[in-house]
Design goal:
Elements: H1 2-23, H2 34-49, E1 52-57, H3 64-72, E2 88-93, E3 98-103, H4 106-116, H5 137-149, E4 156-157, E5 160-161, H6 163-178, E6 187-192, H7 200-203, H8 206-209, E7 212-219, E8 228-233, H9 241-251, E9 256-262, H10 269-281, E10 287-292, H11 301-316, E11 324-327, H12 329-336, H13 343-353, H14 356-378, H15 381-411, H16 415-462, H17 469-479, H18 484-488, H19 496-562, H20 580-587
Parallel strand pairs: 1-8, 1-9, 2-7, 9-10, 10-11
Antiparallel strand pairs: 2-8, 3-6, 3-7, 4-5
Helix pairs in contact: 1-2, 1-15, 2-15, 3-12, 5-6, 9-19, 10-19, 16-19, 17-19
């Protein structure tokens, strides 16, 4: 893919150089090439920016980071920081080992904290309406005392810490360590070569990772080409619904998903919940599954095969004929760095290598997965994208060739014959202009119609009066009942405003969960259905004009042929729609972030 892409970029440069050479001809109308030049410039940008994004997702303890490290053949990634933060670690091929850490600005941090502090009781004379600034020592002390005054048992929900109190505590705990790094604008820190491993301290510590927005790793030994981005998405089963929304934002940009299931746990409820959300989003077609085998958990190969078959049957309820591969990511990782392993892990690898049946089974699964992944990266959709660019270059090159032959033919004629040729061509151009006007008028009318249909679909989708999506949200809010029994006993003994804060935070988290797990996926599914409708409309409206365009093209060839100029051309192929994602990228159209 990368080799072909570079060849296309070189072809593009060669065509642009032809335009430059032609434009140097005196008294030539250089505007003649403007449309072709525009296509070449747009195509070069598309080819240069065309990144294939692969998301690796799965629940906690499934082995996502181990799997990614096994692909990279080294321990580059550290496990995520936990429930307080969800980090999408993006990996690309680079010239040298480098970690880029992107930090939030002071304003983003304060806004983040203020959202978690809604209805938090004020202390002393501080007004609840005063803006919070973590840089102010008094604000930090006040917040620490407020958090300390809340009932301990109210800070625990579903056997885990309350998300917002944990967020605030983490910000306070990490402040001293990062205060010299953070600024008014977003800050980037780079860890090159020998310092690369230091980036892990930020990912592995909740009080530091909470200050991060993003992590990008550049690996010089990555097996993929530079046009591939691999992302380790942590937080798919986080109790914080905003983390789910962050992953949704990245999944919308991905070309396909690798979902990791641990053989130790099998398919859990958290997996079913997350995969159901992916299905609602309408992106289940581009997913493959990895059963990450833990050799120590299974007595025999038959045990693993039986588990894999059961998991595949369960996945079939969510996706017809799922693609499932089974192997040990940890074994692959150890094997790839055999000479560099610590003694304990080296002994573990030696023990595994004695289990020939396990190793053969895992190697076979790995080979099948790599073949499938290579097919997805080098063929199918991505090769088709390159083919579309190549066809456009073919049209332009054919046009340039015809232009040269036509001008050469005119210059070899006497003045009378030349005038006759030019008159005939101008007459044909007028006919083409009329045809173009008819096509444009028809399409403009059709666009107005499809816009009206889309507007009607959107109104119906969101109209709460007729059971639209907003109705689900409104009904949830109206029917929500706080678990008053939890708080009634403490109402007299505790600070009322403190209890109000905890009740509100519980309601907010329930509403955020509804948005992340039900509403956002439905919005994304609806958007994709409407995109398909737009594409189908445009294709159906361009089909009738294919024959007209081909007839006009053939007539043009006959006209100049009768005048003694033979053009070497091929009939144009069927008009093809640009990929919707490419159109959105070119026009800058993006959905608002789900995390908003």
């Amino acid at each position: 893919y990368n080799s072909l892409k570079n060849e296309l970029l070189q072809i593009n440069q060669n065509i642009l150089s032809l335009f430059s050479a032609a434009e140097s001809i005196p008294e030539l109308n250089v505007q003649f090439f403007d449309d072709w030049k525009k296509i070449c410039i747009e195509t070069e940008k598309q080819l240069s920016d065309d990144i294939i994004k692969i998301a690796v997702v799965g629940t906690i303890k499934s082995g996502k980071s181990t799997f990614v490290n096994s692909l990279l053949k080294n321990d580059y990634l550290k496990r995520g920081a936990g429930v307080v933060t969800s980090i999408v670690t993006k990996i690309r091929k680079g010239r040298q080992l480098k970690a880029n850490l992107y930090f939030k600005s002071w304003n983003e941090i304060n806004t983040d904290m203020e959202q978690a502090m809604v209805l938090l009781p004020p202390l002393r004379e501080r007004s609840i309406n005063d803006g919070f600034d973590i840089r102010q020592e008094k604000d930090r002390i006040d917040l620490q005392q407020i958090l300390g005054s809340l009932s301990r048992k109210h800070l625990i929900a579903d056997n885990s810490r309350n998300v917002n109190s944990l967020l605030l505590t983490s910000y306070l705990k990490g402040y001293e360590a990062v205060k010299e790094i953070i600024s008014e604008d977003s800050t980037t820190m780079q860890y090159d070569e020998n310092l690369f491993a230091q980036h892990r301290s930020f990912v592995g510590d909740e009080s530091l990772s909470v200050y991060l927005k993003d992590i990008e790793l550049e690996i010089d030994s990555v097996r993929f080409d530079s046009n591939v981005e691999l992302a380790d998405c942590q937080g798919s089963d986080s109790p914080n619904p905003l983390h789910i929304a962050m992953i949704q934002d990245y999944l919308l940009l991905t070309h396909f998903i690798i979902y990791i299931v641990s053989s130790r746990t099998g398919l859990r409820q958290a997996d079913i919940k997350f995969l159901s959300m992916i299905r609602k989003m309408g992106i289940m077609d581009n997913i493959l599954f990895i059963i990450n085998c833990d050799f120590s958990e299974h007595e025999s190969i038959e045990d693993i095969k039986s588990l894999a078959e059961r998991i595949k049957e369960e996945l079939s309820l969510l996706k017809t004929d799922p693609e499932v591969h089974c192997f040990s990511a940890l074994y692959n990782l150890f094997k790839s760095q055999k000479t560099r392993l610590p003694e304990k892990e080296k002994q573990r690898l030696l023990q595994w290598e004695k289990e020939a049946a396990f190793i053969t089974f895992s190697d076979m699964g790995t080979s099948q997965f790599e073949t499938s992944l290579n097919h997805k990266l080098t063929q199918r959709r991505y090769t088709l994208l390159l083919k579309n660019h190549l066809e456009r270059f073919g049209v332009i090159a054919s046009g340039i060739s015809n232009w040269i032959q036509l001008n050469h033919g005119v210059l070899t004629k006497d003045a009378q014959d030349a005038d006759k040729i030019i008159a005939k061509i101008k007459q044909h151009q007028q006919k083409i202009k009329k045809l173009t006007a008819v096509i444009k008028s028809t399409l403009d009318g059709g666009v107005r119609k499809i816009k009206h249909e889309l507007r009607s679909d959107i109104d119906q989708f969101f109209n709460f009066k007729y059971g639209g999506l907003l109705n689900d949200v409104i009904q949830f809010i109206r029917n929500y009942k706080p678990p008053s029994s939890i708080y009634e006993k403490d109402l007299k003994a505790s600070n009322f405003s403190g209890l109000m804060f905890m009740v509100f935070q519980e309601f907010k988290q329930a509403l955020d969960s509804l948005m992340a797990e039900n509403i956002n996926p439905e919005v994304i599914r609806f958007m994709r259905e409407e995109e398909k409708k737009v594409k189908a409309f445009l294709e159906s409206n361009t089909d009738p004009y294919d024959l007209l365009v081909q007839d006009a093209f053939a007539e043009y060839g006959n006209i100049v042929g009768d005048l003694g100029i033979n053009l070497s051309y091929e009939m144009p192929e069927k008009i093809k729609m640009k990929d919707i994602d490419s159109i959105k990228r070119l026009t800058g159209l993006t959905l608002p972030p789900a995390v908003a």
